[in-house]
Amino acid sequence: MSLPSPRLTFLLIFLGCTGLILTGFYMQYVMHLYPCPLCITQRVFIVAVGLTGLLGFFFNPGSIGRKIYGVVGILFAVLGGSFSTRQLWLQSLPADQVPACGPDIGYLLDNFPLIDALSVLLRGDGNCAEVLWTFLGISIPGWTLVAFIGLVIINLWQIFRRH
Questions:
Q1: Which residues, given as ranges, of the chain have pLDDT below 70?
Q2: pLDDT for the residue numbered 113
Q3: What is the pTM of this model?
Q4: What is the 3-state secondary structure (H, E, C) of the chain?
Q5: Which of these, 12, 39, 61, 80, has the minimum number of CB atoms within 10 Å of its CB?
Q6: Which pLDDT value is given to residue 126?
Protein backbone atom coordinates (compact mmCIF):
# COMPACT_ATOMS: atom_id res chain seq x y z
CA MET A 1 0.00 0.00 0.00
CA SER A 2 1.48 3.34 -0.99
CA LEU A 3 1.16 6.48 1.07
CA PRO A 4 -1.02 9.34 -0.18
CA SER A 5 0.66 11.88 -2.43
CA PRO A 6 1.55 15.30 -1.00
CA ARG A 7 -1.39 16.80 -2.89
CA LEU A 8 -3.81 14.24 -1.48
CA THR A 9 -2.37 14.79 1.99
CA PHE A 10 -3.10 18.52 1.71
CA LEU A 11 -6.66 17.62 0.73
CA LEU A 12 -6.93 15.31 3.76
CA ILE A 13 -5.74 18.16 6.01
CA PHE A 14 -8.47 20.39 4.55
CA LEU A 15 -11.14 17.70 4.91
CA GLY A 16 -10.07 16.94 8.49
CA CYS A 17 -10.33 20.62 9.41
CA THR A 18 -13.71 20.82 7.66
CA GLY A 19 -14.86 17.88 9.77
CA LEU A 20 -13.66 19.62 12.93
CA ILE A 21 -15.54 22.82 12.06
CA LEU A 22 -18.69 20.87 11.18
CA THR A 23 -18.42 19.07 14.52
CA GLY A 24 -18.17 22.45 16.23
CA PHE A 25 -21.28 23.67 14.39
CA TYR A 26 -23.12 20.47 15.34
CA MET A 27 -22.22 21.01 18.98
CA GLN A 28 -23.28 24.64 18.75
CA TYR A 29 -26.54 24.38 16.82
CA VAL A 30 -27.78 20.85 17.64
CA MET A 31 -26.36 20.24 21.11
CA HIS A 32 -26.71 23.94 22.07
CA LEU A 33 -23.15 24.18 23.40
CA TYR A 34 -22.39 27.79 22.57
CA PRO A 35 -18.72 28.60 21.96
CA CYS A 36 -16.81 30.83 24.33
CA PRO A 37 -14.24 33.39 23.12
CA LEU A 38 -11.37 30.89 23.25
CA CYS A 39 -13.45 28.30 21.37
CA ILE A 40 -14.05 30.82 18.60
CA THR A 41 -10.33 31.64 18.50
CA GLN A 42 -9.52 27.92 18.17
CA ARG A 43 -12.02 27.64 15.33
CA VAL A 44 -10.25 30.47 13.50
CA PHE A 45 -6.96 28.56 13.67
CA ILE A 46 -8.60 25.31 12.54
CA VAL A 47 -9.97 27.20 9.54
CA ALA A 48 -6.51 28.71 8.91
CA VAL A 49 -4.85 25.27 8.90
CA GLY A 50 -7.63 23.94 6.66
CA LEU A 51 -7.29 26.79 4.18
CA THR A 52 -3.52 26.25 4.10
CA GLY A 53 -4.18 22.61 3.21
CA LEU A 54 -6.71 23.63 0.57
CA LEU A 55 -4.21 26.02 -1.02
CA GLY A 56 -1.59 23.28 -0.96
CA PHE A 57 -4.05 20.97 -2.70
CA PHE A 58 -4.97 23.49 -5.42
CA PHE A 59 -1.45 24.73 -6.14
CA ASN A 60 0.21 21.30 -5.74
CA PRO A 61 3.62 22.82 -4.92
CA GLY A 62 6.99 21.21 -5.44
CA SER A 63 9.33 20.28 -2.62
CA ILE A 64 10.12 23.81 -1.41
CA GLY A 65 6.50 24.97 -1.69
CA ARG A 66 5.30 21.88 0.17
CA LYS A 67 7.69 22.76 2.98
CA ILE A 68 6.43 26.34 3.08
CA TYR A 69 2.81 25.20 3.27
CA GLY A 70 3.81 22.69 5.94
CA VAL A 71 5.53 25.35 8.06
CA VAL A 72 2.53 27.69 7.74
CA GLY A 73 0.17 24.84 8.70
CA ILE A 74 2.35 24.04 11.72
CA LEU A 75 2.44 27.70 12.76
CA PHE A 76 -1.35 27.96 12.69
CA ALA A 77 -1.75 24.61 14.50
CA VAL A 78 0.72 25.57 17.23
CA LEU A 79 -0.99 28.93 17.74
CA GLY A 80 -4.39 27.23 17.89
CA GLY A 81 -3.01 24.63 20.30
CA SER A 82 -1.76 27.40 22.56
CA PHE A 83 -5.34 28.68 22.89
CA SER A 84 -6.57 25.16 23.60
CA THR A 85 -3.92 24.92 26.31
CA ARG A 86 -4.99 28.29 27.74
CA GLN A 87 -8.59 27.10 27.93
CA LEU A 88 -7.58 23.82 29.55
CA TRP A 89 -5.63 25.84 32.12
CA LEU A 90 -8.70 28.02 32.80
CA GLN A 91 -10.80 24.86 33.20
CA SER A 92 -8.34 23.50 35.75
CA LEU A 93 -8.49 26.54 38.02
CA PRO A 94 -10.30 26.35 41.36
CA ALA A 95 -13.67 28.12 41.23
CA ASP A 96 -12.43 31.08 43.29
CA GLN A 97 -9.61 31.78 40.80
CA VAL A 98 -11.66 31.68 37.60
CA PRO A 99 -11.84 35.10 35.92
CA ALA A 100 -15.18 36.85 35.77
CA CYS A 101 -17.46 36.05 32.86
CA GLY A 102 -17.62 38.69 30.19
CA PRO A 103 -20.26 39.73 27.67
CA ASP A 104 -20.88 37.68 24.54
CA ILE A 105 -18.91 38.22 21.36
CA GLY A 106 -21.69 40.14 19.57
CA TYR A 107 -21.88 42.67 22.39
CA LEU A 108 -18.10 43.06 22.46
CA LEU A 109 -17.86 43.66 18.73
CA ASP A 110 -20.78 46.09 18.73
CA ASN A 111 -19.72 48.16 21.75
CA PHE A 112 -15.94 48.06 22.05
CA PRO A 113 -13.04 48.92 19.78
CA LEU A 114 -11.89 45.93 17.75
CA ILE A 115 -8.57 45.69 19.61
CA ASP A 116 -10.38 45.39 22.96
CA ALA A 117 -12.76 42.74 21.60
CA LEU A 118 -9.81 40.79 20.18
CA SER A 119 -8.04 41.02 23.52
CA VAL A 120 -10.96 39.25 25.21
CA LEU A 121 -11.05 36.65 22.42
CA LEU A 122 -7.37 35.91 22.87
CA ARG A 123 -7.35 35.95 26.66
CA GLY A 124 -10.63 34.24 27.44
CA ASP A 125 -12.88 34.82 30.43
CA GLY A 126 -14.90 32.88 32.98
CA ASN A 127 -17.14 31.45 30.25
CA CYS A 128 -14.07 29.61 28.91
CA ALA A 129 -13.54 27.83 32.23
CA GLU A 130 -16.86 26.03 32.11
CA VAL A 131 -16.70 22.38 31.02
CA LEU A 132 -19.86 21.78 29.00
CA TRP A 133 -19.08 18.38 27.46
CA THR A 134 -16.56 15.58 27.81
CA PHE A 135 -15.76 12.38 25.97
CA LEU A 136 -13.51 9.80 27.67
CA GLY A 137 -12.94 12.38 30.40
CA ILE A 138 -11.49 14.95 27.99
CA SER A 139 -13.22 18.29 27.39
CA ILE A 140 -13.72 20.02 24.04
CA PRO A 141 -10.49 22.07 24.22
CA GLY A 142 -8.63 18.89 25.14
CA TRP A 143 -9.89 17.15 22.00
CA THR A 144 -9.15 20.29 19.99
CA LEU A 145 -5.59 20.21 21.32
CA VAL A 146 -5.32 16.56 20.22
CA ALA A 147 -6.52 17.64 16.75
CA PHE A 148 -3.94 20.45 16.61
CA ILE A 149 -1.19 18.01 17.59
CA GLY A 150 -2.33 15.69 14.81
CA LEU A 151 -2.28 18.59 12.35
CA VAL A 152 1.27 19.46 13.41
CA ILE A 153 2.36 15.84 12.86
CA ILE A 154 0.78 15.63 9.40
CA ASN A 155 2.32 18.95 8.37
CA LEU A 156 5.70 17.80 9.69
CA TRP A 157 5.36 14.74 7.52
CA GLN A 158 4.64 16.98 4.55
CA ILE A 159 7.89 18.86 5.26
CA PHE A 160 10.13 15.83 5.67
CA ARG A 161 8.64 13.35 3.24
CA ARG A 162 10.79 12.26 0.31
CA HIS A 163 8.35 12.61 -2.59
A1: none
A2: 87
A3: 0.89
A4: CCCCCHHHHHHHHHHHHHHHHHHHHHHHHCCCCCCCHHHHHHHHHHHHHHHHHHHHHHHCCCHHHHHHHHHHHHHHHHHHHHHHHHHHHHHHCCHHHCCCCCCCHHHHHHHCCHHHHHHHHHHCCHHHHCCCCEECCEEHHHHHHHHHHHHHHHHHHHHHCCC
A5: 12
A6: 79
